[in-house]
Amino acid sequence: MSESLSAGPRLRILIVGGxxxxxxxxxxxxxxxxxxxxxxxxxxxxxxxxFCAGLAGRASRLAAAFxxxxxxxxxxxxxxxxxxxxATGPFQAYGAxxxxxxxxxxxxxxxxxxxxxxxxxxxxxxxxxERARRRGVTVLSGVSSFPVLTAAALRHLARDLPLVRIxxxxxAPSPHAVVGENVIRAxxxxxxxxxxxxxxxxxxxxQPLTETxxxxxxxxxxxxxxxxxFSLVEVPDLLLLADVRPEIQEIWIGAGLRPEILHRILxxxxxxxxxxxxPSLAPLAGLMHRASRHLxxxxxxxxMFVEILGERQDGTNVRRSWHLSAEGDDGPYIPAMAIAAxxxxxxxxNLPDPGxxxxxxxxxxxxxxxxxxxxxxxxxxxxxxxxxxxxxxxRLLGETYARLPAPIQALHQLAKPVxxxxxxxxxxxxxxxxxxxxxxxxxxxxxxxxxPVEVRFTLTSEVWERNFAxxxxxxxxxxxxxxFSYLASERFGPLSFxxxxxxENERLRLVVRGWRIFGLPLPAFLAPTGDTYEHAADxxxxxxxxxxxxxxxLIVRYKGWLEPA
Length: 565
Description:
Layout: E1 2-4, E2 11-16, H1 21-30, E3 36-42, H2 45-53, E4 60-65, H3 73-79, E5 83-86, H4 100-108, E6 111-114, H5 119-124, H6 129-135, E7 138-141, H7 145-157, E8 163-172, H8 181-190, E9 195-199, E10 202-206, E11 212-215, E12 228-232, H9 237-244, E13 250-255, H10 260-274, H11 285-294, E14 301-311, E15 317-327, H12 334-347, E16 355-358, H13 369-372, E17 377-383, H14 392-397, H15 406-412, E18 418-429, H16 433-442, E19 448-458, E20 462-468, E21 471-479, E22 488-492, E23 495-504, E24 507-517, E25 520-521, E26 533-537, E27 540-549, E28 553-564
Parallel strand pairs: 2-3, 2-5, 3-4, 5-6, 6-7, 7-16, 8-13
Antiparallel strand pairs: 1-4, 8-14, 9-10, 11-12, 12-13, 14-15, 15-17, 18-19, 18-28, 19-20, 20-21, 21-22, 22-23, 23-24, 24-25, 24-26, 26-27, 27-28
């Protein structure tokens, strides 16, 4: 056992598995809180020492050897924690006495929190409720993305709805995120096996990984993630979220694993289990873990969505969704944030009620704000609304539309129902053969400097009829569907592009997220690129459109300004 810094009268947090994937990230989230004393524990004293040595921050810390399979009373008594956190797992494999650590924490008078994702484990924690109440301590299970964050998002989305019929949610980790071996073992154990979920407002049997759907994670005004394949996973939410909204008829929770080809192989193996050809994928867990560590490609981005279908007081249907995107190494902190938020609330004097229960009601979305701040997270709510008084960009940008400069808003309001804008612009053309062929196919105007420009708009879709000194270029922008959901779909003849609308530094950037020809998808790595944005200057709407190809360079660039005619 080794220690650094003075413990003082600080709140003592024992993190079992504190140098592991999730425990280590929790420690990092808490490390700069001077009111805490972190006890980083695991079977290896050397690994605990090494982790503590590299952990910066104002919290005092202690490295300790701790074996959760050995007698626990003496170990806990020696460390004297106020809160015990179990960040080990897999919780599905805890055997005949799954709650040994929670029971030992109760006997020591310490609160207990875990990051369990096993449905039976989380639901069963209520068996300790009476014992926890007698000791006056709080015991919470499943304090992670599922079910804490999904439950908080459900309450937020349904706050004014008397009826919620369906909830669907999914998490898409970055393909470059390190996934712990225990997580892989848990997935391998339940893949294709029968588990319980809410279907038709009652319990039903489903088989994880053998049900799929596609979704685009796209916080309003932020760069959308690629359209992602999600497959059903076994998490506590499949039953527990019915405690939040008892009228709910269906709960579906999935994971969007990438690269997609490996995900599809895993789905295929799960079907072999479902069809009784294989008894289990558990023997393949080691191979799956090695594959996840070495076969990685794609953007280092992840995210999460929660979607509900419900009904307003007047009986009209509503579909709302909450979206979260995370850049780079920030995303993997999300599962540990719920425990960090609960500890912060306790430091601020907000103690949860004593007793043992799944963590369904302890946090709201606002409790995550402090943890999201300073990190590369974007979050927001979308509501699908076909109201005739909202323009295309208002629908796609939602709450972020109001952040656009007034000239940009004014121009997109012209499409009510038909609008006209005039201005001036310049056109630059690429000089290669490929650029000339594409320009001829699409009908891009010839190179010109400071020529008159005219643009016409309509409402449900923005029909951009550009007139550059007599040379017309027509495209149609509409609300994307399917793989282009939450994107602007712009069509130039046989080509269509899915454009993410990104509000950034008082500019509206349009970023290509996918493309098609005659409706057929084309490879994303060959999609056109370029810096395309709208901005305000001199009190006017300005446009800058650049279309280039990653292999052949510039095709066309046109820029200028417009004013309502």
